[in-house]
Amino acid sequence: MRGLLFILLLTISVLPGFSQSYQKLMDGVEYKNRVHIHCPTYQAVTYVYDGDKVIRVRDDLFYYWFAASDVKKTQGGYDGKLINGEYAAFYLNKNLKEKGNFRYGLKVGIWKSWYISGRYSEIANWKKGELNGHYSSYDSSGYKKEEGNYKKGKKDGVIKLYDSDGGVEKITYKEGVEEKVKHEKRIKKIVNVIPGLKKKKEKSEQPAVTTPDTKSDKKESRKSKKDKPKIKVKKFIKVVPLPENKKT
Fold first, then answer.
1. What domains appear along the chain, each with residue ranges and CATH number?
2. What is the 3-state secondary structure (H, E, C) of the chain?
3. 0.70 cut: is pTM over it?
């Protein structure tokens, strides 16, 4: 009983301190200071880093940072507070626009984006500011347009491109370099496009009459010819009398 009472008192003492700040830990990284972004076409909620840690930037990566009530994106540097933590953007109709996580201004983990209708636009994996892993993109009707894999920001392996007719174009990449392209088209059967086409085809598919090839077949054909009755045709010669000489 005393043990339960001690745990209850300890929980009550911890809860106020926990609820009074925005500070959280994500993979050992502290993020705080929640900010709201208001744009003409969307709104967003996220967190910014406000610590003293010196962030070493890479020239090839894009960093997201907050300044002048907006999120900026620049390559190889920043000049504001780095986005650090969960990020969620919404259309004006309250549908989700984009959602994911930042770590010191770089995208990490699974990022998802949507069309204003609510359908998926893209799903991708990020690692330290680079696309890394499986990704897929969709059109506004919800059909998949493209899918494949990234490795350290470069396409790697077989990338599939889908068209509206059901065809698939497969492109093989190695470290971002295109190596092989393969087209796979879905063949549709078209019947009676040309009048009489089916009838002509059916006639052509009728089995042809074969002639006897074996010796037995040849003998039988000769016997059948011999068994036929012969008809004798008599020739009649008509005698025409010569005209008599007229008397002078």
1. 21-118 (no CATH), 119-189 (2.20.110.10)
2. CHHHHHHHHHHHHHHHHHHCCCCEEECCEEEEEEEEEECCCEEEEEEECCCCCCCCCCCCCEEEEEECCEEEEEECCCCCEEECEEEEEEECCCCEEEEEEEECCEEEEEEEEECCCCCEEEEEEEECCEEEEEEEEECCCCCEEEEEEEECCEECEEEEEECCCCCEEEEEEECCEEEEEEEECCCCCCCCCCCCHHHHHHHHCCCCCCCCCCHHHHHHHHHHHHHCCCCCCCCCCCCCCCCCCCCC
3. no
